[in-house]
Amino acid sequence: MAGLGKSGTGGDRTCPAAYQRQLSSVFASPGDEGRAKRVEDRMVSGIAAGRLLDGDRLPSESELAASLGVATMTAREALVFLRARGW
């Protein structure tokens, strides 16, 4: 863990709780976040390639999750990201 104690690289150690949150965010498991991003990217690619057209019905969240081999919550998270981006 070289460098964690050096000024400017270790975060604000004057507040132990804040410092612990900073470390937690660095070392936390990515969980489904990476999977959701991959699902989102796949959907955007399908739209960009013309495979998914405006007005096409998407499968249900559970069907989408099953077809992509991810959890339903992961598919739902990807769809939330897509909606937020205006897709």
Number of helices: 4
Strand content: under 5%
Q: Specify the overall morphology.
A: elongated
Question: What order do the helices and strands follow?
Answer: HHHH
Q: Return Rg in Å.
A: 19 Å
Structural class by SSE content: mainly alpha
Distance between the termini: 42 Å
Helix content: 55-70%
Total strands = 0
The largest pleated sheet is described as: none
List the helices and strands and how they pair.
Layout (H helix, E strand, L loop, with lengths): L15 H12 L5 H16 L12 H8 L3 H13 L3
Q: Briefly, what is this?
A:
This protein has 87 residues and is mainly α.
Structure description:
The protein contains four helices and no strands. With about 90 residues, it is mainly α. The protein is elongated and about 55 Å long. Helix 2 (about 35-50) packs across helix 4 (about 70-85) and helix 3 crosses helix 4 (about 70-85).
